[in-house]
Specification:
Layout: H1 2-41, H2 52-59, H3 69-81, H4 83-92, H5 97-121, H6 126-142, H7 154-164, H8 169-186
Helix pairs in contact: 2-3, 2-5, 3-5, 4-5, 5-6, 5-7, 5-8, 6-8
Length: 187
Amino acid sequence: MAEQMGSSSRDAATSETSRRLPIGILLGALVIVAGVIAWKVWPRHLPPASDTLAVAKLVNSSDFASVPEPKRRQYIQALRKKSDAMATGLTTGKLTQAEYDVAMSYVWLARQLDHMDGYFALPSGPQREKFVNDLAEKSRKAGPASNPAIRDEKSRQRAIDQWMADWPGDRRAQWEEFRKASKAKKT
């Protein structure tokens, strides 16, 4: 009889453990899922826009794609204003050629986005035509850039693709229309 009581208490303990195991696994899985979500959503420390070299490194990282577009725009505008600092960073070895190429691709993109916004702020027709004519003339008069050239021209297309990844179709259509009008005047 004592053996039966001991056996039934062991069975009860085993049964209790068997019931707790799936609950523990489920809770562990929930903790892991919550951790992954928090990791993806948690705000990352982003450099101030005034730190040109840190921003140049940020635009080269995979984190840049997850930054909201208004903040990305702020960063590339800052790079545009301080492109000389990036050229210095390249010559002093603080930026690699690849980092410089990507950062300068974003400088170019910042300028193009500003031009595109100006283009679409005007009514269709002669005003837009004059706008792209003026841009083309300004470009011809500007002459060669004083900063080192981009060696990897494909970095520009990668920057464009990454930037537009979350754009809706109508915004992409605007980009295509502007680029087509702009290229037609430059040739």
